[in-house]
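quick one if you have a minute, typing this from the bus. below you get a single protein, a line of residues and a line of whole numbers that encode the local backbone shape. could you go over both lines and see whether the tokens make sense for that sequence. anything you notice is useful, everything is just below.
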Amino acid sequence: MKARTWLLIDRGSKMSVGERIKMARRMAGLSMDDLATVAGVSKMAISKYERGINVPSTGVLIRLAQALDVKVAYFLYPVSVSLSPPVYRRRKSLRVKDQNAVLGRTQEWLERYLDVESLFGSPVRFTLPEINRRITRLDEVERAALELRQVWQLGLDPIENLVELLETRGIKVGMVDGPDEFDALTIWANGSLPVIVVKRNSPGDRQRLNLAHELGHLVLEPVEDVDEEKAAYRFAAAFLVPEPVARAELGDHRKTLDLYELHLLKHKYGLSMQAWVYRAKDLGIISSSVAASLFQKFRQENWHHQEPGDPIPPEEPGRMKRFVLRALAEDVISPSRAAELLGMPLAQFWHEEATHHDGFPLPVYC
């Protein structure tokens, strides 16, 4: 019966199964050759499955699911998310294989996010802020960052939780596993949904800078002769620490900066010590030679990889989790569906939450 059922699958369903196989393979970081070896299926067969030419039998589908560590049902869900070409923030060249893995994990997470969001009516939609986004010189970024803070009514105070701020403005924020070379990416889903994804478990200050950097890519429009990456980087620092704030904290002119002073400012504003040095240099508070001397000190002490003192913990997106818990509490979804949307068994979810929240809620649910 099952074999006959497969023969009745229409072309659209074939494409959906094929796209799912491709997504799962990319998430696993496997090539077609790798998957063929693990699943005991020829590379040509996998290619035909992914292109929607053929549909795997039930037995082959089970072997593919085992090889890719997904449930068989995963292959049968329609693909609901299309992604634009991403803009990456990376420290080194990111291999195509790793790019595909990050994109696959992004698409899988985003589908779950949009599924749970749809349970509670119309989602918050992102609208481009009404600011002068055209950047003809790098120093114009300072004005754009201040204008965005004004439009979003943030004042000049430190931004306590950048993830929550972006989510309330209609930007989907996700965390995915990735290689050392990956920091973050900006992407548009289904043509109109802005998505920012950052590497899971990054230090909080690096994470916040990456998030603000990607926000810069979304809101700025640099002209051709303005370096887009430099504009986004300066926007990130200016958004987290506006120029009036930087001058109030550091003064207008300094001979040097105290390292512990920078550490305290890092914890107040969620901006790394090294980013504060860049900030001071960009604003002319310190000279380029003083900045170079400070950066040399960081390299000598190996602080350019891990800054001294207690780190800033990473922020966690909470909107999706809250939606799932709300739907579960109101019997809108079953515990098994909640686990699917969370991407992990409920017992694991409760355990991870309890680890971050001093034992709560694990005793309540076990």
